[in-house]
Amino acid sequence: MCGIVGFTGSQDAGPLLLEGLKRLEYRGYDSAGIAVQSGGVIRAAKASGHLRNLCEQTHDGADLPGVCGIGHTRWATHGAPTVTNAHPHLSDDGVFAVVHNGIIENYAELREELQGRGFVFHSETDTEVVVHLLDCYYKGDLKAAVMKTVSRLNGSYALGVVCADHPGELIAVKSASPLILGVGVGESFFASDVTALVGHTRNVIYLEDGEFASLTPDRITVFDCAGREINKTISRVVWDVEAAEKGGYEHFMLKEIMEQPRALKAAIEPRIKDGRIVLDGVELTAEQLRNIRRVVITACGSAYHAGCVGRYIMEELCRIPVEAEVASELRYRNPLIGQDTLVIVISQSGETADTIAALKECKARGARTLAIVNVVGSTVAKLADDVLYTWAGPEIAVATTKGYTTQVAVLSLLSVYMARKLERIGEERFGELVKGICSLPERCQRAIDLNTHVGYLAKRYHNNSSLFFIGRNLDYAACLEASLKLKEISYIHSEAYAAGELKHGTIALIDEGRLVVALCCYEALFDKLVSNIKEVKARGAKVLAVAQEGNRHIFAEADDVLFAPAIDPLLVPITEIVPLQLFAYYVAKENGCDIDKPKNLAKSVTVE
Ligand code: AGP
To answer: Which atom of ligand 1 is nearest to the CA of 375?
Structure first.
């Protein structure tokens, strides 16, 4: 997600702003910029790509004289990662510069209103409306202009503002996006998180939603939403810089597991309007859908596993044949794909070589292609006919977690949308499913809260040399991802197996003490799973079951139990994977593995 920084004091602001942006790089970005105010003039510099491009362009900030300024790393949401779309955005008269983290949800109507007032827009961003609103309302009173501007905004925003008429003063505004103030000696700071501050001061003020602040070198004044000055506690940061980047978590993977409720909210909420599903301008008419004979979902790794879950959901709801196939196979097997095929391509990074190649192959055969991607403006996103972003925010850990669950959530939305368009489900079932999807953020948090004992179970089972994940239907699809999570961060061999298939040979491997993780959340087949648990226990296996909260029967069958919160059966894989992500994490931690950067692995496999 975007990062913002601000500095005012007696040192050159340019280098300090760039240093602060470096501290925020881990948040992920695709362009950056700074603006420095000096002598009644605001000078700005922006660059796309790596932050070093901006550093080189500005000679490490030396080209922008001044002791007061703002900076930004942009994680593109509205508009591609170009220099024009990069922040800071300046007013045409050069009086204001603004940086923003968040999404202005009513930007389109504000843009139209401002254009009607003669303001000229240069970028595709939502943020640009803020700088023109400030310009529109500013009559010399900066605080009044800020309050009037903020009163027009809907959505989430952490704003940093510098005004040419107010030398040495910064404005910081918080609503829903993080924003922290740094209290220095003869200098003041703001930043999206403490990472960018701890190198200068450990004394910080956490702004609350609706509050805004005026920062000068010697004073920080905080106001409530009504403009009344309020007293704020100065907190002492005890984290080191490394810890701060992870928000206090020991590893990015754990941070990103815990971020899943928020990521799911970002993936789902903008697509539910008045109980209907809206797909970001993706137009799939009933007629177009009726002409689709088959859906092929293709991806790699965990994205493929998300596709396997999506295959069950989509085929169950839409009653269209749906297949999921790894991209590295699809691209080379001369597939029967044509204009009657909808190809769904899934990729967190949008840069996976096999996935890109499969996408190109399918396009060349005339298929309509729809991408489900996290990185805005990535190759897969640009190549596909349509794209649905997962809005999970940057994912740093190599092992995906929030990237996967948001992919499945978007696939669920798409499946329900398609099924309703095809009239394969009625309003009642549609409403149930929409309600279930909307509950996913809270259900995901419940899945975290239900399994505080997972670390203890990881200590008990971390020494296994090889284990099995078994399940049926959607539980089996979830097993695929659970197995990969464990393998890729703990280096313990595991295998996902269709529970009903075990007896056809593989059960020969079940011996005394072998750990079998049995996913039993798809309750229509619970009794079948109990039979499979009995089969493996009869051969000496230890069974760790994953069952729905409230299922009391499982205690009589399994040695240990992890829980998934109750949810619509078709959405089970999104919640039941959470305790298994945590299980893999704690097993790997117990084994002293490099959790965020596992051996031999890359976050994006951009080669064949
Ligand atoms: C998942 O934990 C792995 N990092 C890997 O399987 C990954 O899902 C796969 O390489 C696909 O990456 P993508 O989603 O960026 O295309």
So the answer is: 15
User: Could you report the per-residue pLDDT of 299-346, keeping only the tens digit for each?
Assistant: 999 999 999 999 999 999 999 999 999 999 999 999 999 999 999 999
Would you state the structure tokens that stand for residue 67, as one six-digit string?
């002791």
- pLDDT of 211 over the 60 cut: yes
Q: Which of 52, 44, 53 is nearest to 89 (CA)?
A: 44
Q: Which of 143, 148, 232, 603 is catalytic?
A: 603
Atom of ligand 1 nearest to the CA of 484: 2
- Picking from 313, 277, 183, the residue whose alpha carbon sits closest to that of residue 235 is 183
pTM for the full model?
0.73
Cis upstream peptide for 88 (omega within 30°): yes
Q: Which structural domains are found in the chain, ordered by start?
A: 3-244 (3.60.20.10), 252-438 (3.40.50.10490), 454-590 (3.40.50.10490)
Concatenated DSSP letters of 138-193: -SS-HHHHHHHHHHT--EEEEEEEEETTSTT-EEEEEESS--EEEE-SS-EEEESS
Q: Return the structure tokens found at 234.
A: 């100065």
Over the stretch 542-584, which tens digit does the pLDDT of each residue have? 999 999 999 999 999 999 999 999 999 999 999 999 999 999 9
Ligand 1: residues whose CB is within 6 Å? 300-303, 347-349, 352, 355, 398-400, 488, 604-605
